[in-house]
Amino acid sequence: MINYNGRTFVSTENTANGEVSSKTLFEYKQEGDIISANYSGGEIIQGTLIGLVNENGSLEFRYNQINIKNEIRGGKCLSTPEVLSDGRIKLYEQWQWNDDEATEGSSVIEEVIV
Prior knowledge:
This protein is mostly beta strands. Helices cover 0% and strands 62% of the residues. The protein has no helices and eight strands. β3 and β4 form a beta hairpin. The two termini are 22 Å apart.
């Protein structure tokens, strides 16, 4: 199983209805099969996520964030990992906003070595 604890990620791709960008950094923590992260940067003032790491290394989580318009937004996400040749992790994410429109999107975040 992949251990996400202490890993930092940055967004490399996102659909137009997303708020995360290449200026958004995610700092992951993992205890057992519980995953959490704090993130900020770009259009995101502050965000948090919490969820589960599945046996195949995929992540299921809920996220909440405050954007630069002082809006509170949140949703759910399923992330599928790819371990790169240099050992870093790339996550392919399918997400959905938890608002009246409930639009869906996809993004990719990639581990950065800090």
